[in-house]
Design goal:
2 domains; OB fold (Dihydrolipoamide Acetyltransferase, E2P); globular; five-stranded antiparallel β-sheet; 21 strands; six-stranded mixed β-sheet; 9 helices; Rossmann fold; alpha+beta
Length: about 350
């Protein structure tokens, strides 16, 4: 398949810098996700890889070939890539077979080769029996699979996907995640995937690049980024989390806004800190370190999504759905903690809250 090497790539539109010194190599057969909020630069990076944008500085290699940088620029059609966009972009006047065949037709390949490749692509995306249907006779998920088959039919070295599932409903999104991942494993193709959906990134990726304001905040496996975030932005963006200000004192962290309640701590940080607790890491215990009152609980079937008042804080707890029947709103409760994160109190949390409001 293919590797992608990005060397000191930056991109500016006039005075606005949207990417800053992106340096990375995406490995052969790797599923890489560029994750981040709207406007962070992830789609711009994908468009530079595709050849729809030129980098302002830096170089981009596909395998050993320089495709962007300096005076060199290889156009998209000569980069051996397949691309799937957010919109299905299927031709409404063509049936499924002709939609998928289109890239091969414009390359003037012979009819027998086209038939073989299209049938193979439709088999991969489970649309063989829909070859003669038109897009208006198909669901959104089926149309997205047509777009995927069209991207795969020319056997590209590299598959680029730009938020391809965002127009689908929740159940279709979930099923398509696994279909795309299965296809990638089956073909061994290198994939660069753009999304703002953390669940998609976690479910599909070998590595995630979390970008904010044009800068890669952290890269790593989903497990690394989720469990070992390098800063508050990463912790906040990937997964659910609550932040609380505290101070390290005598082997414990005193949580200022929780009426002085404290939790044990044997880490390296001292003085004022910010504690990040994911709601699934709290649980109802007979004698936990935190005491409060259950204000409200939301029964969601598989989980009981609770809010517990501790001092001035409303703390979120995600417990098993069975807990719903054991608890009552207004009840005094005790919380245990499986795990938590500690950051320096460097003002980043205050900046994040200011941006959000």
């Amino acid at each position: 398949m293919s590797t992608v090497s990005i060397r000191n790539v930056s991109k500016a539109f006039g005075e606005s810098v949207v990417l800053r010194e992106f340096n990375e190599t995406f490995g052969d057969g790797e599923f890489v996700t560029l994750l981040g909020p709207s406007g962070c630069g992830k789609t711009t990076m994908l468009r530079i890889i595709a050849g729809f944008e030129k980098p302002t500085t830096g170089e981009l290699y596909i395998d050993d070939q320089l495709v962007s940088g300096g005076k060199t620029f290889v156009p998209p059609e000569k980069r051996s890539i397949g691309m799937v966009f957010q919109s299905y972009a299927v031709w409404p006047h063509m049936n499924v077979f002709d939609n998928v065949a289109y890239p091969l037709v414009i390359k003037k390949q012979n009819k027998e080769q086209i038939r073989e490749r299209v049938n193979r692509a439709l088999e991969i995306v489970h649309l063989t029996k829909y070859a003669n249907r038109f897009p208006n006779q198909m669901s959104g998920g089926q149309q997205q699979r047509v777009a995927l088959a069209r991207a795969l039919v020319a056997a590209p070295k590299l598959l680029l996907l730009d938020e391809p599932l965002s127009n689908l409903d929740a159940k279709l999104r979930e099923s398509m995640r696994f279909e795309i991942k299965d296809i990638q494993k089956q073909l061994g193709i290198t994939v660069v995937y753009v999304t703002h959906d953390q669940t998609e990134a976690m479910a599909m990726s070998d590595r995630i690049f979390l970008i904010n304001r044009g800068i890669v905040q952290q890269s790593g496996t989903p497990q690394e980024i989720y469990n070992q975030p390098v800063n508050q932005f990463v912790a906040d963006f990937l997964g659910k989390v609550d932040f609380f200000k505290g101070e390290v004192k005598n082997g414990r962290i005193e949580l200022t806004s929780m009426g002085g309640q404290s939790i044990p701590y044997d880490g390296p940080r001292t003085g004022k800190v910010e504690v990040a607790i994911r709601p699934e890491n709290l649980y109802f215990a007979s004698d936990g370190p935190l005491k409060g009152k259950l204000e409200i609980q939301y029964y969601l079937g598989d989980v009981d999504d609770c809010r517990v008042r501790i001092g001035d804080e409303l703390v979120r707890v995600i417990a098993s759905g069975y807990e719903y029947y054991k608890l009552q709103e207004g009840q005094e409760v005790s919380l245990g903690i499986r795990d938590f994160l500690v950051f320096d109190d460097d003002g980043m949390l205050d900046q994040m809250l200011t941006i959000q409001t």
